């Protein structure tokens, strides 16, 4: 609608200064070009460093951003058509994320704001009433309202932007923490080239299996009780998830299985490349993950506290995977003790897929992928609600749950990035 004076905020482009239109377009185009060029140069740098997996991960992130941009484009083009879809008020008032709030002249439902004009000219028998949203007028028959208002569609645009930003930020944080964890392993890898290491692990030396550091750390009386065995495995992921004895034993088993004995092989660098391959897998968004995000939005009904329980699920998955990976390492140590009373040199672990769920190491990676996506989605949703509706909005009526949900999300991001994913990159090579 065109307007003058106080109605300037509702002007359309035919009544807007050309310098204002050009300035806004120029800024948007400049930001877009800088972002594209920055990603392009970053990709070239990855190629120069021969980091193929990270380059492919970057390309996958760019593809996901393109999909989100296309979704936003569809919303922009179709918003007027979507807002014209009218549904009965009884239907639009079901499964609301917030309670219906009413006051004099105002009714709110489903995030959309419908304002009935209370004037003497209003005739209750009229077949239409006006719905004001974002400066547009949408007509629906009496007793019906739009499927989603124009203002609601605008808020959905903002949510997509938040999702894109946090998707990139979550991926960068995951890779940064994972590589930070592996820096300690680099010291252990360097030690394998020292004379002291070669002497202490001389293949001509014989030792009792239970006296070796690797076997001694994982074989205790609680291994005979299944509940205690998994409880201890659960705790180990928080306290020295990968110690020096574990790393050297797994390294020795891998080299013995795939290379000639005594080969000079940088196992830490290989695991770092493996982490990059795993990272490439977890930054994508598959149809299954999109479906899970839609289900979270569907079930976010007032009173169900669905967002809190949905934030707990990634925590349960990550803790279960960490426990399983620790149990696999312990099982390898137990097998060494059961097979041999005396070992020659460093204990030799037996590589096998039998230790993994469904005998498939990739299944654990899928669960990590799902947990990371859901966790990032939950954090994104929280910040979007804060931005659009405020920290103390109806979405956050139980503020204790909100604090717990955000704390869990931050904890899961750190736990998975710094502990679980690097641990998986190491243990999955034993399959």
Whole-angstrom Rg = 29 Å
Largest sheet: 3 strands, antiparallel
> How large a portion of the residues is in β-strands, by DSSP E?
5-15%
Order of helices and strands: HHEHEEEEEEHHEHHHHHHEHH
Major sheet strand order: 2-3-4
Number of strands: 9
Shape: elongated
Count of domains: 3
Mean pLDDT: 78
Structural class: mainly alpha
Separation, N- and C-terminal Cα atoms? 66 Å
The helix fraction, in percent, is 55-70%
How would you describe the oligomerization state of the chains in this entry? single chain
Unreliable sequence segments: 1-8, 103-136
Individual helix count:
13
Short summary:
This protein has 431 residues and is mostly helical. It has 13 helices and nine strands. The radius of gyration is 29 Å and the shape is elongated.
